[in-house]
Amino acid sequence: MQDSQRIDLYVLTNKNGVSAKILTYGATLVELQVPDRLGELNDIVLGFDRLDGFLKNDPTFGAIVGRVANRIAKGKFTLDGKEYRLSINDGPNHLHGGLKGFDKVVWLAEPVPDKDGVGLSYSSPDGEEGYPGNLSAKVVYVLTDDNELRIEYTAQTDKPTPVNLSNHAYFNLVGAENTNILGHELLLAANRFTPSDDSLIPTGEIKPVEGTPLDFRRPTAIGARILQIPNSPGGYDHNFVLNSDSGKIAMAARVYEPSTGRVMEVLTTEPGVQFYTGNFLDGSIKGKKGVSYRKHYGFCLETQHFPDSVNHPNFPSTILRPGKTYTQTTIHRFSVK
Q1: Which of 42, 126, 189, 264 has the smallest CB count inside 10 Å?
Q2: Which of the following is catalytic: 96, 168, 238, 296?
Q3: Residue 177: pLDDT above 80?
Q4: Is residue 3 part of a domain?
Q5: How, if at all, do strands 28-35 and 41-43 pair?
Q6: CATH classification of the domain holding 230
Q7: For residues 280 and 294, what is the distance between their CA atoms, to the nearest angstrom?
Q8: Are 319 and 310 in contact, with CB atoms under 8 Å apart?
């Protein structure tokens, strides 16, 4: 880094040849090699071949986003009677932790004893991006021999503060340097979603997906109804309310790519998942192997609490208080058919 901070790259591998590369800058998943039905490995996450790409560009490819993932309306909230104002970096709103969120800092790393994993920690000071309290966050990536990439999160604070961490990987199960993801078949374990306004801030309502283009309760090609989305920003960018009990690991999503046979299942303890189809990729970013990443070249499944939860009392709370520990676990499980 220009300020002489050192950035390291950790490589996790399992007995099946699956591998994951984790960068300490942004605690970023920069590469994920998984086999297709013929056993051929390919990298299935978007990103860059060199560090410069992550430093100069801002699509949060593979990074941990926080202190609060997703959007906070107008960058403000009231907590225990006091109003807090955050940095604004997405139109009128605060997005993914602000101008310098957790995706733009260098995390401290150490190997995980007796596992193929790496633990990364970051201390966010009181007032960073406008948030109250000193927050100590830790993220642990573990790759198992069952072809699971586990991401476990914990955080503690000395003042009440909102916390909502997530990983922002863009997946393409054909391969990170290939074409769009519209032919991928998606299943979401969600009967409901949270409608949003034109700036992608939830209205506070929770509505059924039935009868809408957001109904993925049965496997459906991502592109099958993408043009039918009302008030669409060019694709899906919606928070889905998962059917499972929050706090228990359960299935959130399953994605199948027919040409390669790759299957990715996402399990999580979180109450929601943001499904995003790379709507703002416009070809201006050159990624791995010099490929210009265009619209719909990747999809995200960001396990999370709901967007703008801090301003909606009817949503699951994102407030962490002193003496309590924030915990979250998300698992990406890979197979073929």
Answers
A1: 126
A2: 168
A3: no
A4: no
A5: antiparallel
A6: 2.70.98.10
A7: 8
A8: yes
Predicted pLDDT at 248: 92
**Residue 247 pLDDT:** 85
The pLDDT tens digits for 259-292 are 999 999 999 999 999 999 999 999 999 999 999 9
Q: Which pair of structure tokens corresponds to residue 127?
A: 């007032």
**Residues of the domain holding 302:** 9-336
Please, which pLDDT band fits residue 232 given cuts at 50, 70 and 90? Answer: low
Question: What would the pLDDT profile of 146-170 be if each residue is shown by its tens digit?
Answer: 999 999 999 999 999 999 999 999 9
What pTM did the predictor assign? 0.96
Per the annotation, the verdict on 168 as an active-site residue is: yes
234, pLDDT greater than 90? no
Whether 267 is covered by a domain: the verdict is yes
Verify whether residue 152 is a known catalytic residue: no
Is 2 a member of any domain? no
With bands split at pLDDT 50, 70 and 90, how would you rate the model's confidence at 233?
Answer: low
The verdict on residue 53 lying in a domain is yes
Give residue 231's Cα distance to chain centre: 23
Catalytic residue among 302, 305, 312, 332: 302
pLDDT exceeds cutoff 80 at 231: no
**Average pLDDT of the segment spanning 76-84:** 98
Q: Count the residues in the chain.
A: 337
